[in-house]
Every structure is written in C-alpha cells, then in structure tokens.
C-alpha cells in the first residue's frame, strides 16, 4: 500500500513538473511572437499613415493626381529605407547587449557541457538584425502601397481624397484587428486606437498644409 502511494505521489510530482515546464515555453512563445507582431504592425501602420498623410497634404493644395502619386511613392521609398535602417540599428544594439550579457554570465559561472549547450540555445534565440530590417521595410511598403493604389485610378479630386481616407481607414482597422487577435489583446480597443491615431495624423497634415498653402498664395 505504501509503495502504491509512493508511486502515485511520484506521478503527481512528475505531472506538476511537466506542467511547470510547459508554461514558460508558452509564455516565451507569445513573448517572441509579440516582438515580431509589434514590428510588423508598427511598420505596416506607419507606412499606411505616413504615405496617406503626405498624399492628403499634397491634395490639400493641389488637385493634380500625378503630384499625389509621386509624393506617395517618395514617401513609401523613403519610409521603407528609414524603417529598415532604424530597425537594423536598434536590433543590432540589442544583440550586442545580449551577447555581452551571455559572455559575462559565462565568465562568472564557468562552463561545463550543459552550460555550453544553454549558451548555444541562447545565441540561437537572439534577434537577427538583417531579418528585422527586411521585415520592417516590407511591412512599411505593404502599408504604404494602399493609399497609392486607392488614389491611382480616380480622376475626380474630391472623390479621390474620400477614397484614400476610406481605404486607409479600412487598412488601419484590419492591421489593428489582426495584430490584436494574434497577440491575444482586445481587438476593439486596438482597432479604435489605431483608427483614431491615423485619422488625427491625416487631419493635422491636411489642415496645416492647407493653412500654409493658403498663406503662401496670399503673400
């Protein structure tokens, strides 16, 4: 009877240990996923809002479709390069810090075979600066192309401006919702936050450019 109880207690302990080991892996998985989601969502949203805002600013003072499209592509190219360089530098700095931390821990603890394996696992899990830069540039470009495509086939100026706003709003709603769902956060709050931020950026750029353009014409 005592032997049976010992077997049961051992089984329970092993089950508890197994569950404890699984929780950090799941938390770690969501943590890593959230980093990529943050970069992808930020890049796409930034590309969408930046490109659309500049196009709206040009549209506030000019009705020429070619000017809007040209500015849109210029914003897309410049923004994608800026995002890629910024992400590369940022992630590379993070990589240097984490590598330095691993070296410090190695010197303090010394190394055996098990610790060497842990060090290799840590290094494999470190961020890749080049991959992060490419991902940010691609995400920015995917977001930035939306307002350009929305404006590219409409000749009427007022209709074109309205379609750009509608397309950007839909894009912001989708990006906010997808990021929230995959990141296990409230979708409604995320969508509202992204939409309001995008509308404010476009409205401020449109209003200030209109004001400056009008003042310049009067002078």
Could you say how many structural domains there are in total? 1
**H/E element order:** HHHHHH
Distance between the termini: 100 Å
**What profile does the largest beta sheet have?**
none
Structural class category: mainly alpha
Helicity range: over 70%
Oligomer: single chain
Q: How many H/I helices?
A: 6
β-strand amount? under 5%
Subcellular location: Vacuole membrane
Keywords: Ion transport, Iron, Iron transport, Membrane, Transmembrane, Transmembrane helix, Transport, Vacuole
Organism: Capsicum annuum
Region (Disordered): 1-32
How would you characterize this protein structure?
The protein has 219 residues and is mostly helical. It has one domain (41-209). It contains six helices and no strands.
Reconstruct the topology from this structure.
Layout: H1 2-61, H2 65-109, H3 113-124, H4 129-151, H5 157-182, H6 187-218
Function: Vacuolar Fe(2+) uptake transporter.
Region (Disordered): 1-32
Biased composition (Basic and acidic residues): 13-24
In short:
The chain is mostly helical and 219 residues long. It has 6 helices and no strands.
List its salient traits.
219 residues, mainly alpha, 6 helices, 0% strand, elongated
């Amino acid at each position: 009877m005592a032997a049976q109880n010992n077997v049961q207690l051992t089984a329970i302990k092993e089950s508890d240990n197994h569950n404890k080991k699984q929780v950090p892996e799941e938390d770690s998985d969501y943590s890593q996923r959230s980093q990529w989601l943050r970069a992808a969502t930020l890049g796409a949203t930034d590309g969408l809002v930046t490109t659309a805002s500049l196009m709206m600013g040009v549209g506030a003072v000019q009705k020429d479709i070619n000017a809007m499209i040209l500015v849109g592509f210029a914003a897309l190219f410049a923004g994608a390069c800026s995002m890629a360089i910024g992400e590369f530098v940022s992630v590379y700095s993070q990589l240097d810090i984490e590598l330095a931390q691993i070296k410090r821990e190695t010197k303090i603890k010394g190394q055996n075979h098990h610790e060497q394996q842990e060090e290799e696992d840590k290094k494999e899990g470190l961020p890749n600066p080049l991959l992060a830069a490419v991902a940010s540039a691609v995400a920015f470009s995917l977001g930035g192309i939306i307002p350009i495509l929305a404006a590219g086939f409409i000749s009427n100026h007022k209709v074109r401006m309205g379609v750009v706003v509608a397309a950007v709003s839909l894009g912001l709603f989708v990006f906010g919702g997808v990021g929230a769902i995959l990141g296990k956060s409230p979708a409604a709050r995320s969508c509202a936050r992204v939409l309001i931020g995008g509308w404010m950026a476009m409205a401020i750029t449109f209003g200030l450019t209109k004001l400056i353009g009008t003042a310049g014409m009067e002078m």
